[in-house]
Prior knowledge:
This protein is an all-alpha fold. The chain has 2 domains: about 1-30; about 40-130, no CATH class. It has 6 helices and no strands. The protein has helices at about 5-20, 45-50, 60-70, 70-75, 80-100, 115-130. Helix 3 packs antiparallel against helix 5. The longest helix has 20 residues, at about 80-100. The protein is elongated and about 65 Å long.
Amino acid sequence: MSDRQARGVEKALQEAEARGEFQNLPGAGKPLPGIGEPLHEDWWLRQKSTRENLGADALPVTIRLAREVDELESVLDGLESETDVRDRLEQINQRIRAALIGPVDGPPLRFGPLDVEAETAAWRDRRSTPRE
Length: 132
């Protein structure tokens, strides 16, 4: 931006402020939403999808998979049997393998198939450990 453009923008902002156009804006005097929370790799996409009320189906396959892996522990903890846990992990792994092999929309995956045995063992450990 040139100096001339910057001066024009600054002048327009000052005039709008003088007219009171920046008073009573939503969120005035409140902290920014999400401040202090860690940012996920796809933070901008999450904000856009929330702001525009886009469903998960609108996201590229690789981003949906990344979200699913991020939320995996809580999903698995909701399952009652080890068979259900293994089935869910195998379903996810099938989609991960397909995304790794074929052309898909979205950024490349940064992880491979999940270790079914390790995830199942972790699920068993969480179930046997009392939570506070």
